[in-house]
Amino acid sequence: MALRIIVHEPDPVLHQVAKEVTKLTPNIHKLLNDMADTMYHAEGVGLAAPQIGILKRVIVVDVGDEHGLIEMINPVILKAEGEQLGPEGCLSIPGLNGDVRRHQHITVQGLDRHGNTFTVEASDFLARAFQHEIDHLNGILFTEIAESVYEVPREGRKAE
Ligand SMILES: [Zn+2]
Protein backbone atom coordinates (compact mmCIF):
# COMPACT_ATOMS: atom_id res chain seq x y z
CA MET A 1 0.00 0.00 0.00
CA ALA A 2 1.34 3.37 -0.98
CA LEU A 3 -0.34 6.62 -0.18
CA ARG A 4 0.17 9.71 -2.31
CA ILE A 5 -0.22 13.25 -1.10
CA ILE A 6 -3.52 14.85 -2.10
CA VAL A 7 -2.98 18.36 -3.40
CA HIS A 8 -5.33 21.09 -2.27
CA GLU A 9 -6.71 24.27 -3.71
CA PRO A 10 -5.19 26.62 -4.83
CA ASP A 11 -2.54 24.31 -6.33
CA PRO A 12 -2.34 25.19 -10.05
CA VAL A 13 -2.19 21.50 -11.05
CA LEU A 14 -5.89 21.28 -10.18
CA HIS A 15 -6.68 23.80 -12.91
CA GLN A 16 -4.81 22.15 -15.76
CA VAL A 17 -6.10 19.76 -18.40
CA ALA A 18 -4.74 16.24 -17.96
CA LYS A 19 -3.23 14.29 -20.85
CA GLU A 20 -4.54 11.07 -22.34
CA VAL A 21 -2.72 7.90 -21.39
CA THR A 22 -1.21 6.39 -24.54
CA LYS A 23 0.80 3.53 -23.03
CA LEU A 24 -0.27 1.16 -20.25
CA THR A 25 3.02 0.80 -18.44
CA PRO A 26 3.65 -0.76 -15.01
CA ASN A 27 3.75 2.85 -13.78
CA ILE A 28 0.07 3.20 -14.64
CA HIS A 29 -0.73 0.05 -12.65
CA LYS A 30 1.17 1.45 -9.69
CA LEU A 31 -0.62 4.77 -10.13
CA LEU A 32 -4.03 3.04 -10.07
CA ASN A 33 -3.09 1.02 -6.99
CA ASP A 34 -1.84 4.09 -5.16
CA MET A 35 -4.88 6.15 -6.17
CA ALA A 36 -7.25 3.53 -4.73
CA ASP A 37 -5.20 3.30 -1.53
CA THR A 38 -5.14 7.09 -1.22
CA MET A 39 -8.88 7.42 -1.89
CA TYR A 40 -9.86 4.78 0.69
CA HIS A 41 -7.43 6.16 3.26
CA ALA A 42 -8.98 9.62 2.85
CA GLU A 43 -12.47 8.07 2.98
CA GLY A 44 -13.29 9.53 -0.40
CA VAL A 45 -15.59 8.10 -3.05
CA GLY A 46 -13.47 9.10 -6.02
CA LEU A 47 -10.06 10.42 -6.96
CA ALA A 48 -8.59 11.81 -10.16
CA ALA A 49 -4.86 11.68 -10.93
CA PRO A 50 -4.44 15.49 -10.96
CA GLN A 51 -5.46 15.43 -7.28
CA ILE A 52 -2.16 13.72 -6.53
CA GLY A 53 -0.29 15.99 -8.92
CA ILE A 54 -0.28 13.65 -11.94
CA LEU A 55 -1.68 15.22 -15.11
CA LYS A 56 -2.96 11.99 -16.67
CA ARG A 57 -6.55 11.05 -17.53
CA VAL A 58 -6.94 8.40 -14.83
CA ILE A 59 -9.71 8.13 -12.24
CA VAL A 60 -10.85 5.76 -9.52
CA VAL A 61 -14.38 5.71 -8.13
CA ASP A 62 -16.03 3.67 -5.38
CA VAL A 63 -19.31 5.01 -4.03
CA GLY A 64 -19.92 1.86 -1.97
CA ASP A 65 -22.48 0.36 -4.33
CA GLU A 66 -22.51 -2.96 -6.20
CA HIS A 67 -19.97 -1.69 -8.74
CA GLY A 68 -17.22 -1.66 -6.12
CA LEU A 69 -13.94 -0.07 -7.18
CA ILE A 70 -13.94 1.23 -10.75
CA GLU A 71 -10.60 2.14 -12.31
CA MET A 72 -10.89 4.02 -15.59
CA ILE A 73 -8.26 5.39 -17.95
CA ASN A 74 -9.16 8.06 -20.52
CA PRO A 75 -12.85 8.19 -19.48
CA VAL A 76 -15.32 9.71 -21.92
CA ILE A 77 -19.01 10.38 -21.35
CA LEU A 78 -20.83 8.90 -24.35
CA LYS A 79 -24.35 9.71 -23.27
CA ALA A 80 -25.93 11.89 -20.61
CA GLU A 81 -29.56 12.20 -19.56
CA GLY A 82 -31.65 13.90 -16.91
CA GLU A 83 -30.61 16.22 -14.17
CA GLN A 84 -29.90 16.08 -10.45
CA LEU A 85 -29.01 18.82 -7.99
CA GLY A 86 -27.21 17.72 -4.87
CA PRO A 87 -24.35 18.26 -2.43
CA GLU A 88 -20.78 17.53 -3.36
CA GLY A 89 -17.43 17.74 -1.67
CA CYS A 90 -13.85 17.29 -2.79
CA LEU A 91 -10.75 15.82 -1.17
CA SER A 92 -8.80 18.73 -2.66
CA ILE A 93 -11.11 21.32 -1.06
CA PRO A 94 -11.57 20.20 2.54
CA GLY A 95 -14.26 21.95 4.52
CA LEU A 96 -16.43 23.06 1.60
CA ASN A 97 -19.46 21.50 0.02
CA GLY A 98 -21.65 22.78 -2.73
CA ASP A 99 -24.88 22.03 -4.52
CA VAL A 100 -24.00 21.02 -8.04
CA ARG A 101 -26.27 20.30 -10.98
CA ARG A 102 -25.24 17.10 -12.76
CA HIS A 103 -26.69 14.63 -15.23
CA GLN A 104 -28.80 11.93 -13.59
CA HIS A 105 -27.68 9.07 -15.86
CA ILE A 106 -24.53 8.76 -17.90
CA THR A 107 -22.82 6.17 -20.04
CA VAL A 108 -19.09 6.43 -19.57
CA GLN A 109 -16.44 4.55 -21.49
CA GLY A 110 -12.74 4.11 -20.92
CA LEU A 111 -9.92 1.63 -20.61
CA ASP A 112 -9.18 -0.76 -17.80
CA ARG A 113 -5.61 -1.32 -16.65
CA HIS A 114 -5.09 -4.00 -19.30
CA GLY A 115 -6.16 -1.75 -22.14
CA ASN A 116 -9.63 -3.24 -22.61
CA THR A 117 -12.41 -0.80 -23.41
CA PHE A 118 -15.36 -1.02 -21.03
CA THR A 119 -18.52 0.92 -20.41
CA VAL A 120 -20.33 1.81 -17.18
CA GLU A 121 -23.97 2.82 -16.94
CA ALA A 122 -24.06 5.13 -13.96
CA SER A 123 -27.01 6.78 -12.24
CA ASP A 124 -27.58 8.98 -9.22
CA PHE A 125 -24.57 9.32 -6.92
CA LEU A 126 -22.30 7.14 -9.06
CA ALA A 127 -23.08 9.34 -12.08
CA ARG A 128 -22.30 12.40 -9.95
CA ALA A 129 -18.96 10.95 -8.85
CA PHE A 130 -17.92 10.18 -12.44
CA GLN A 131 -18.84 13.67 -13.62
CA HIS A 132 -16.92 15.21 -10.70
CA GLU A 133 -13.78 13.15 -11.47
CA ILE A 134 -13.92 13.77 -15.21
CA ASP A 135 -14.21 17.49 -14.46
CA HIS A 136 -10.93 17.17 -12.53
CA LEU A 137 -9.29 15.84 -15.71
CA ASN A 138 -10.38 19.04 -17.43
CA GLY A 139 -9.14 21.28 -14.63
CA ILE A 140 -12.62 22.07 -13.34
CA LEU A 141 -13.45 22.07 -9.63
CA PHE A 142 -16.98 21.74 -8.23
CA THR A 143 -16.69 25.16 -6.61
CA GLU A 144 -16.51 26.71 -10.08
CA ILE A 145 -19.81 25.23 -11.21
CA ALA A 146 -21.76 24.91 -7.94
CA GLU A 147 -25.00 26.80 -7.50
CA SER A 148 -24.03 27.42 -3.89
CA VAL A 149 -20.93 26.68 -1.80
CA TYR A 150 -20.97 26.35 1.98
CA GLU A 151 -18.67 25.38 4.82
CA VAL A 152 -19.05 21.97 6.41
CA PRO A 153 -17.26 20.18 9.22
CA ARG A 154 -14.51 17.95 7.82
CA GLU A 155 -16.09 14.83 9.31
CA GLY A 156 -18.99 12.96 7.94
CA ARG A 157 -19.34 14.14 4.36
CA LYS A 158 -18.54 12.20 1.25
CA ALA A 159 -15.80 13.77 -0.78
CA GLU A 160 -14.48 13.24 -4.24
ZN1 LIG B 1 -12.73 16.44 -6.29
Automatic annotation (TrEMBL):
BP term (GO), one: translation
Record note on cofactor: Binds 1 Fe(2+) ion.
Binding site for Fe cation: 90, 132, 136
Source species, domain of life: Bacteria
Coiled-coil ranges (or none): none
Swiss-Prot/TrEMBL catalytic activity: N-terminal N-formyl-L-methionyl-[peptide] + H2O = N-terminal L-methionyl-[peptide] + formate
Record keywords, A-Z: Hydrolase, Iron, Metal-binding, Protein biosynthesis
Family: Belongs to the polypeptide deformylase family.
PANTHER family, alphabetized: PEPTIDE DEFORMYLASE
Protein name per the record: Peptide deformylase
Organism expressing this protein natively: Paenibacillus dendritiformis C454
